[in-house]
Amino acid sequence: MLRRIATRRIGLSGAALIVGTLVFAGCGSDSGATPYVAPTGPAIKTLSISAKNFAFTPSALSAPAGILQIDLTSSAGNHDLVIQGLPGFQLEVSGDTKASGKVLLKKGKYTFYCDIAGHRSSGMEGTLTVT
Ligand SMILES: [Cu+2]
What we know:
By secondary structure, the chain is of the alpha+beta class.
């Protein structure tokens, strides 16, 4: 009788140890996102873009190749701005907030859009022509 109780106690503390290990392992698995490295140095041009439900204004921009600063504001709703071919770059705005970021772009035509579910298909997309 006494032996049975002792075995049960060991069994319980063993289970608690396993749960503790799983929780600890879960904490370390949060490093999968692509880190975006912003270019250093001054921007040669600042592009101001305003977001609303569901459009960017302006939706067609042009800029010279090099380091560009993008200032994003929102006049309505929560939005973000990502650029196709530039993994990790993202500006997020909600309500009246403003977000700024720098990108280094070569000549080409880039598509930017809001990647919140349903926003791009509703019209939140634009083009940036770099010459
Ligand atoms: Cu949006």
